[in-house]
Design goal:
Layout (H helix, E strand, L loop, with lengths): L7 E2 L19 H12 L2 H23 L1 H13 L7 E5 L2 E2 L4 H9 L11 H5 L17 H4 L3 H10 L10 E3 L8 E3 L4 H12 L10 H14 L2 H6 L4 E4 L10 H4 L3 E4 L6 E3 L12 E3 L9 E2 L19 E6 L9 H10 L5 E4 L8 H9 L1 E7 L7 H8 L3 E5 L18 E3 L1 H4 L4 H7 L3 H14 L21 H24 L15
Parallel strand pairs: 2-4, 2-5, 5-6, 6-7, 7-10, 11-12, 11-13, 13-14, 14-15
Antiparallel strand pairs: 1-3, 8-9
Helix pairs in contact: 8-9
Length: about 500
C-alpha cells in the first residue's frame, strides 16, 4: 500500500517487501570431490587440461586487444535486456490539489468549455459527479483527453507494487535510491482548465489559476534537496499539452520533459518563409532528444483489429481544421490542392461527440490518412489513423515521433516532404503507385504495434496493471535510456569551478 503524507501525492510507500533467497548445501559433497580428483589427476588429463587453458587464455588476450571485437561487444551488451531490468522512480511529494484534487475541481465545476461545440463532460453532469471517488476519471472532453498521458503514468506509479509486476518502472521510497524523480503535477489539465474557463488570461499571470499552480509546483520542487543535488536533471515532468507550464519553462528546462513534439517549444517568426530554418526561430527554452522523450497522444477513436478490416473505397482522408498557425499554414495549401480531387475526402472538424462517427467511418474506409502539421508538427490524428489501420501520410520536413529506435515508422507510414506535397498532382500519383501487397504489409505492421500507443489500463482511476507492451512502459524505457547521460551531466556540473556558467543544451537531433 502507499503512504500519503496528509493530502499529498508522492513520497515513499508504506512498506518495502523484500524476498531473501537461501542456498541448500549439496549432499555427499566430500565424496564427489574425492572421486573427481582421483579421475582428474591422471597424466593425460593434466596434459590436456593445461593445453586447453593455454589456448583459452591466448584467445581471450587476442580478442581483448582487437578494437573491432571490443566495439562489437559493447554494442551487443548495450542491446541486451535482462528480465529483471527496470527504472527506479521516486514520486515527489506534491499537494493533492495539484493532481487528483484538480480532477475533483474539474468534475465539480459548472463551467462549459468555451472552445468546444459540445462538452461531453458537461452533458454527463459535472455537478452530479460522485465526489467520494479517491481517484476520479480523466475528462472525456477530446480537447483534454488527447493529452491524458499524465493521468496514466501517475496511475501506474500509485498502483500497489504487488499489482505492478508488468511495469518497467519500480517505485522506490527515497530520492537517493532513485534513477529519476517523477513530478506528479497534472500540468496539461491545469492549462486546459484555464483555457476552457478564460482563454484571454492564459498568457497573463494576474488572475490566472494555471500560473498560480505552476508557480506552486516550481517553488516546491526547486526547493527540495533532490533538485539541489542534481540541478533538476533527473526530474521528470509530463508536458503533453504544447502550452503546459508555459510561464515557468525556463525554470524546469534542465529536467526530463515528456512532450508530444517540440512544436510548442519553438515558433516561427511571422515574417519567415514556410520552411523557416533555425535562424528564423524564437526559442522559448531549450529541448533536446538527448534528454527529453517524445510521447504519443492518447488516441480518440476505437481500435480496428486486422481481422475486422474491410475493403477501403477512398484513397485519401483528412478531418481537421483547415486554418492553423505557424507551420500549419501548409494545411490550407494542401486543402486547396486536394479538396476537389477524385478519391479524396477533406472534412473540417474534430472527432468530438458530433464528429466521432464521421471520423471512424472516414478512417476505416480510406487507404491513406493525411497527417499535415497543425499548430505543432503532430496531433492525435496520427494515432487515430494507426488504430484505424489507415496508412498515415506524414507531410513534414522535420518531425519528432514517439519511441523511434524502438519503432521504424517507415514500415507502416508514408513520409512526404513539403515540396513534394505542394507539387500539383504529385501526392495522389505517389499514393496510387503503392501496390495492394505493399498496403497490406503496412496494415499488417500497424496491427502489430497498435498496442504500443495504448495508455488506458482499463481500471477505474487509472489504478491497476498496465498493458505490458503499452505506452507507459515504452515511455519509461525511453527515460531509462537517458539515465547514463543524466548521471554524467550531474557529475560534470559538480566539478564546475565556482562562478562558471555553461549555456543550456542545444537542440540536437
Amino acid at each position: 500500500m502507499l503512504r500519503h503524507a496528509g493530502n499529498n501525492i508522492g513520497g515513499p510507500e508504506r512498506e518495502d517487501i523484500s524476498v531473501e533467497k537461501q542456498g541448500m548445501p549439496l549432499k555427499n559433497s566430500n565424496l564427489v570431490a574425492s572421486s573427481t580428483l582421483t579421475k582428474f589427476y591422471s597424466v593425460p588429463s593434466v596434459f590436456i587440461t593445461c593445453t586447453l587453458l593455454i589456448f583459452v587464455i591466448s584467445t581471450l588476450l587476442f580478442l581483448h586487444s582487437s578494437p573491432q571485437f571490443h566495439s562489437t561487444s559493447l554494442i551487443f551488451q548495450s542491446s541486451l535486456r535482462t528480465p529483471d531490468e527496470f527504472i527506479r522512480v521516486y514520486v515527489a511529494e506534491l499537494p493533492r490539489p495539484l493532481n487528483y484534487g484538480l480532477l475533483e475541481e474539474y468534475w465539480s465545476s459548472a463551467y462549459v468549455d468555451s472552445r468546444a461545440s459540445s462538452d461531453p463532460d458537461h452533458e454527463l453532469g459535472k455537478a452530479n459527479f460522485p465526489k467520494s471517488l479517491k481517484y476520479p476519471p480523466y475528462p472525456d472532453n477530446p480537447l483534454i483527453k488527447q493529452y491524458s498521458a499524465e493521468y496514466w503514468i501517475l496511475g501506474d506509479l500509485m498502483t500497489p507494487q504487488e499489482l505492478r509486476k508488468g511495469s518497467f518502472a519500480k517505485r522506490v521510497n527515497t530520492a537517493e535510491e532513485a534513477d529519476v524523480i517523477f513530478v506528479p503535477f497534472f500540468a496539461t489539465l491545469s492549462a486546459e482548465m484555464q483555457l476552457g474557463m478564460d482563454k484571454a488570461k492564459f498568457r497573463k499571470k494576474e488572475s490566472n489559476e494555471d500560473y498560480r499552480r505552476q508557480r506552486e509546483v516550481v517553488n516546491l520542487v526547486r526547493s527540495s534537496e533532490a533538485w539541489k543535488r542534481s540541478g533538476g536533471r533527473d526530474h521528470v515532468f509530463v508536458l503533453t499539452d504544447p502550452v503546459a507550464m508555459w510561464h515557468v519553462r525556463e525554470e524546469i528546462a534542465p529536467a526530463i520533459l515528456l512532450v508530444v513534439d517540440f512544436g510548442g517549444w519553438y515558433r516561427l517568426d511571422s515574417k519567415s518563409p514556410l520552411n523557416g530554418n533555425s535562424s528564423d526561430m524564437i526559442q522559448h527554452t531549450q529541448v533536446s532528444l538527448l534528454k527529453d522523450v517524445i510521447v504519443p497522444y492518447t488516441y480518440l477513436l476505437p481500435r480496428l483489429h486486422l481481422s475486422e478490416n474491410q475493403r477501403r473505397h477512398t484513397l485519401l482522408y483528412f478531418k481537421g481544421a483547415k486554418h492553423r498557425h505557424r507551420g500549419g499554414i501548409i494545411r490550407e495549401k494542401l486543402w486547396e490542392l486536394l479538396v476537389n480531387e477524385p478519391g479524396v475526402v477533406m472534412e473540417e472538424g474534430f472527432p468530438n461527440a458530433t464528429g466521432r462517427q464521421q471520423s471512424i467511418k472516414g478512417m476505416r474506409t480510406s487507404e491513406f490518412c493525411l497527417h499535415p502539421a497543425g499548430d505543432t508538427p503532430t496531433s492525435c490524428r496520427l494515432f487515430d489513423a494507426i488504430e484505424s489501420l489507415c496508412i498515415p501520410v506524414i507531410v513534414s520536413d522535420n518531425i519528432e515521433l514517439p519511441f523511434e529506435g524502438m519503432l521504424d515508422y517507415s514500415e507502416f507510414s508514408v513520409f512526404v516532404s513539403f515540396a513534394d506535397a505542394l507539387t500539383p498532382r504529385w501526392l495522389l500519383s505517389h499514393l496510387r503507385s503503392f501496390s495492394n501487397e505493399q498496403k497490406d504489409r503496412f496494415r499488417g505492421r500497424m496491427s502489430e504495434i497498435q498496442q504500443t500507443f495504448e495508455y488506458d489500463s482499463g481500471h477505474k482511476g487509472g489504478m491497476g496493471p498496465i498493458p505490458r507492451d503499452g505506452a507507459v512502459n515504452h515511455i519509461w524505457r525511453k527515460v531509462y535510456q537517458k539515465v547514463p547521460m543524466i548521471r554524467e551531466a550531474i557529475v560534470r556540473e559538480k566539478r564546475k569551478p565556482p562562478g562558471v556558467t555553461i549555456p543550456l543544451r542545444c537542440h540536437c537531433t
